[in-house]
Design brief:
The protein has one domain: Cytidine Deaminase, domain 2. It contains four helices and eight strands; from the N terminus they run E-E-H-E-E-H-E-H-E-E-E-H. Strands 1, 2, 3, 4, 5, 6, 7 and 8 form an eight-stranded mixed sheet that branches.
Length: about 180
Amino acid sequence: MTAGTRLRYTGDNAEIREEAMIVITSEARERLIEACLAARPAEACGLLLADAEGGPIDRIRPVRNAHPRPERAFRFDPEDWVRAWAETRRSRRRIAGFYHSHPCAPPMPSAADLENWRRFGGREYSYWIVSLLNAGRPEIAAWRLRGGVPGSPLVPAEISVQIAERHDIARGDFL
C-alpha cells in the first residue's frame, strides 16, 4: 500500500456496509506491521493509541499474548494489559482501538474474534486485523461495531494512512 492509499473492505454482506473513516499515521502503521511480523508465528495483539483530543492513531502498544495456543489465538496477558492501560492514562492518551494479527489467515474476523468483540467491544473502538499470509505485503482491515451496542454485527471501516513529517502536523495543529 502506498502513502495516502485508502482501502475499503466490503465483505460479503454489502447491505450492512457503513461508511467510516479511521486515520492512522504512517509511522504508527509501520510500527503495527513490525510488531505483527516480530511476533510470528504467534498472533500479535495490542492497543492502538491516539491523542486524548481525538487525533489520528499515532502509536501502538503491544500487549503480551498469553493464550495457551498463541499461534492460533490471542488473549491479553492480564498484567501487561493493566500496565498498558495505566501507561495510556499517565500519558494522557486514549485507546482508539485494538489489534491482533492473523499469521496464516486473511484479515477477516474469525468466529472467536466476533464473539469476543461483541462481548467486549464498543462503538468508540476500532478493531484491526493484520494478515501475514503474504509477509512481504501484510494486509490490514479495520472493523467497527454497527450501532455500538453488544450483539451488533461488525461492519467494514475505511482505513486512511495519514503522512506527516511532524507529530504536531499529524494532529492538525498548525504553527
